[in-house]
Design a protein that fits this description.
107 residues; Alpha-Beta Plaits; two-stranded antiparallel ribbon; two-stranded antiparallel sheet; globular
Amino acid sequence: MTYVVVDSCIRCKLTDCVEVCPVDCFHEGPNFLVIDPEECIDCSLCEPECPVDAIYAEEDLPADQQNFLALNAELSLQWPVITEMKDPLPDSDEWRDVKDKLQYLER
């Protein structure tokens, strides 16, 4: 099993979760983070750290977020690992409560 970053993270990219990960499984894109399912050890440390509730255990993924399991796997192969907390995107506060943000994902 793995943890999965879902669309709540898009255009926020808050990195609180990155610092607690013991295996460096987070990867950073322009406006989104993903978890490498091959590296994730299912420790659950990241989930409570996310201020926008954008991380779910695979088994708890809401039905409308199931596509993010494959998306995390795909993008983690393309994007670099992130291991340290960074400042959020400048307009992240404006995007925290926006739903259905997949169309804003930058690859």
